[in-house]
């Protein structure tokens, strides 16, 4: 089964071909970071227009790399949501129109399910069941994953997600867009222990998160300074990252203990954070569990994870539909996808 995947939920245009027997054949990605940097953040209208410009060239590039033709495709998977409505509409409309043109069925895919399953693209993938720490954009969740479409929500953020806290704190420190990634790099230059920031909900009995108070603590720290020196920024970034990593680590360990599972999957943009990976890896050796991550190129939004999720959904029994009719879902809880494959 050959599945074409199309991702356009925010500021990356991704196209990929995934074969159920051979795995990922090829993928192409364009990031809009440079374009949005001038405005200090993603401009939805510009994002939509850029997706329109990029999708056809990326499609051609993907098929050329794989040595395949459009007629070889068995189904077209695309991101239906969540995301920016205009950006979603570009990928959705393109996928449905292409499906009509080549007479192939389509399958709407949940963006977060793509992230959740993305570690399965690796050469050493996890096996079901596992605990998943999903840290992507505005989402921070812990889930028990029994299989494709079989998800149990263990805990989630009650306000700001980890990624949002990274971006907002970076802005408070005067870092340009994309702030979260720059804050992580800056933290590596900081000295640990110079500043002590709170660890919200670290000791609560549940598995929920809260990061808005951490962001406020950074704001308070910034206001106490007479000037934002480079030394201060680095030490503050280090303190912030230490706090985030400790909370994610402790909650993940609690989830593993609660479920009795020995596999932890970390997916989404924050999953690329070097300190988080290093800390989790050290703890895994000490406590005898395994941690799995997507390859770094698949931590950000990409078409490969959508093609994979589409293929796994089809194999699990989710039916593809005739192309031609569609809608997008900018707000779409992942738990609405739970158990659909089994019904």
Average pLDDT over all residues? 96
State Rg.
Answer: 20 Å
The CATH topology name of the largest domain reads Nucleotidyltransferase, domain 5
Total helical elements: 10
Largest sheet: 5 strands, mixed
Number of self-contained structural domains:
2
β-sheet strand percentage: 15-25%
CATH C-level label of the largest domain: Alpha Beta
How would you describe the overall organization of this protein?
- This protein has 10 helices and 10 strands.
- The chain is of the alpha/beta class and 343 residues long.
- The chain has 2 domains: 2-116 and 298-337, 2-Layer Sandwich (Nucleotidyltransferase, domain 5); 126-293, Nucleotidyltransferase, domain 5 (2-Layer Sandwich), CATH 3.30.420.40.
- It has a 5-stranded mixed β-sheet, sandwiched between helices. Strands 8-7-6-9-10 form a 5-stranded mixed β-sheet, with helices on both faces.
- A hairpin with a 3-residue loop joins strand 2 and strand 3 (23-31).
- Helix 6 (179-187) packs across helix 8.
Kindly summarize this structure in a few lines.
The chain is of the alpha/beta class and 343 residues long. It has ten helices and ten strands.
Helices, strands, pairings?
Blueprint: E1 2-7, E2 12-19, E3 23-31, H1 33-37, H2 44-66, E4 75-81, H3 85-102, E5 106-110, H4 111-117, E6 130-136, E7 139-147, E8 150-156, H5 162-172, H6 179-187, H7 212-223, H8 230-259, E9 263-267, H9 274-287, E10 290-292, H10 303-315
Parallel strand pairs: 1-4, 4-5, 6-9, 9-10
Antiparallel strand pairs: 1-2, 2-3, 6-7, 7-8
Helix pairs in contact: 2-3, 4-10, 5-6, 5-7, 5-8, 6-8, 8-9
